[in-house]
Amino acid sequence: LCTLLWLIWVLVPDDVLIASGISYFPDKSWAIVIPMQIVGTLLFVVYTYICLNMLARCPLTSSNMMYDASTPQTTRMYGDPGEIPEIQDVKLTVINKVMFG
């Protein structure tokens, strides 16, 4: 309903609106200003959301970038043959021993 009223206000000339008894309506320039303001606000909100997420991340030197307290860790690099192990992080010390001796 609102979109229909907006389209009528935008597309119908002022003389026709006044002749039909509608004498109080905003200037036609608001037909462009309001959608531009809405689009600008949405772009600002998206940009601000992305920036705040970038500020809230861990620094690249943090150990939380590798593992955190919610992930279970294991010291076994490989499971038994035929076994499907649970999803776990292998501790960094175990990986270093396997790779570098």
* Biggest pleated sheet: 2 strands, parallel
Low-confidence stretches: none
Structural class by helix and strand composition: mainly alpha
Number of distinct beta strands: 2
Backbone CA Rg: 31 Å
- Give the strand content: under 5%
Q: Could you tell me the mean pLDDT? A: 88
Helix % is: 40-55%
Strand order within the widest sheet? 1-2
- The gross shape turns out to be rod-shaped
The total of helices stands at: 4
Measure the end-to-end span: 73 Å
What is the ordering of alpha helices and beta strands?
HHHEEH
What this model shows, in words?
This protein is mainly alpha-helical and 101 residues long. It is built from four helices and two strands, in the order αααββα. The protein has helices at 2-11, 14-19, 30-55, 92-100; strands at residues 73-74, 89-90. It has a two-stranded parallel ribbon. It starts with a helix and ends with a helix.
